[in-house]
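Pentatricopeptide repeat-containing protein
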Amino acid sequence: MMTLSSISRFMSSSVGRKSHKFSILRFSAASDGEIVYNRLQENGGNIEKTLSSINVQLDSKCVSQVLKRCYRSQSQMGLRFFIWAGLHSSYRHSYFMYSKACELCEIKLNPSVIFDVLEAYRIEGRFVSLKAFKVVFNLCKEAKLADEALRVLRKIPDFGLRPDTTVYNVVIRLFCDKGDMNMAESLVKEMGLVDLLPDLITYMVMIKGFCKVGRLDDACGLFKVMKGHGCLPNAVVYSHFLMGFVGLRKWRELWSY
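Tokens:
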């Protein structure tokens, strides 16, 4: 028969074992996002090196968790993590994640965070690839930040890099969407000065932009240049023409194309 003191010792031992098991369970159940965030808190100023040493499953859930933990008070760290994550061969940011990053890093409300990160890279002498810049440009595109995208474009040479046609297309599209076709035109001309050729995307967004602001003569002229360069228009280009001509009720001109 167990005495009262024996029962008490048994219960204490049992509760202790359960508590120990529970603490182990809680530790082992820590999410990848929590692990990354906690390690970033101890990074000692070398965020990218810290990230490279962490062995976690990088996916949209993990990325979202880290961004949520960085929300408001640590936007710069969150943005650096997001750029780093976008460079992984085993993971690719979705459109949804770009939208989420813009929201949680407050890119639209505080676009200066982009330039704070670029400046931090420069001060630290960190190697920045063109692919990393493309993550930034996609954030600008998602947030519809044309002027900021142009500023980022101007900073690319500071890192010993040259922009490519894809980069120019993002910035040109943003100015076309904004209705600033003069800037969009100047960027297309600038491409030629750095030995880059417009591609189908360039022509497509420019023609759409010209049609949108009612500059159909310019759209038609670019259409001819496009065909002259061997870049065949697709259904999307023709649909932009259709919308532009119909919007201005220029039926007769439409049939000549």
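Residues 4-28 form the longest helix (25 residues).
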